[in-house]
Amino acid sequence: MRILLVEDDLRTAGLIRKMLTQEGYIVEHAIDGEDGLILALNENFDAAILDIMLPRLDGIQLIERIRGHGRILPVIFLSARSSVDDRIKGLRAGGDDYLVKPFALSELLTRVQALIRRATSMSEPTTLKVGDLTMDLLSRKVSRSNMTIELQPLEFSLLEYLMRNAGRVVSKTMIIEHVWDYSFDPHTNVVEARICHLRDKIDRPFEKKLIHTIRGAGYILEERE
Question: pTM of the predicted model, to two decimals?
Answer without folding.
Answer: 0.59
